Amino acid sequence: MRKISICGLAVFATVLLCACVISMAEAQPPVGGVLPDFKLSMPGFADKGYLGISGFGSFRIPEIKAKLVIIEIFSMYCPFCQREAPNVNQLYEKIQQDPGLRDAIKIIGIGVGNSPYEVDVFKKRYNVPFPLFADGDYSIHKKIGEVRTPYFIGVKINPDGSHQIVYSKLGGFEGVDQFLVTMRRLSGL
Known about the structure:
The protein is α/β, with parallel strands linked by helices. The protein is built from six helices and seven strands; from the N terminus they run H-E-H-E-E-H-E-H-E-H-E-E-H.
């Protein structure tokens, strides 16, 4: 009887684990879909200029003046995010050095579970040149499926203001040049 109970418990645990993995995979931002509706706090003057936004209070991703927005979901405590920071900075520099891409592609980061102070520490420690936003209460993180970090989302912004996710993937990228080629291809740039 005890063997049956242990076997039954093991089967139940396996089924539960599989269900959790499947539901996590389905909750990730789907390629071809749209971002859930969330707002980010309006950044400082320089970052407003970079993103091409104006106003006070908050804004949404589709308001960014770009054809493609690359969103990095990170945590200052994630060692993989720390290791990936130089690559993302290099990606930013490559985009900024190309006059054809400078206004077309923008990069932002969202620090899940990080306070504004923690995001600022990460930005300074890794010399991050693009805007970073805090998600201390995990509200954005929950809306995008509680993805692990680092997670990258490419969002194509259409001329009519609508948007579409063209890239959604966990982990860093193999190489900056290849990632940029992939982003250009997927967004039609």
